[in-house]
Write a structure and sequence with these properties.
Layout (H helix, E strand, L loop, with lengths): L1 H5 L1 H7 L10 H12 L2 H16 L19
Length: about 70
């Protein structure tokens, strides 16, 4: 959410114009809980992980909390 206030590329990606107001973070917090309670969201994430495993895009060799760990082959 903070990047939307400072980075035009983020705004472009989510479909905001330069002068559009940025959403409040609580909008996502509220909807996240509502969506994760639904079976369709659970099915979507399970399927996404399955596809990543089938294409060998995930590994048990390391763990990263914030996703910034990159490992060159």
């Amino acid at each position: 959410m903070e990047q939307l206030n400072h980075n035009l590329l983020f705004c472009w990606f989510v479909g905001l114009n330069v002068d559009d107001p940025v959403w409040d973070y609580s909008t996502f917090s509220f909807n996240r809980q509502r969506l994760f309670d639904e079976a369709i969201a659970q099915h979507f994430f399970e399927h996404t992980v399955l596809l990543a495993r089938m294409r060998e895009l995930v590994s048990d060799e390391h763990f990263s909390v914030d996703g910034t760990l990159l490992e060159w082959w």
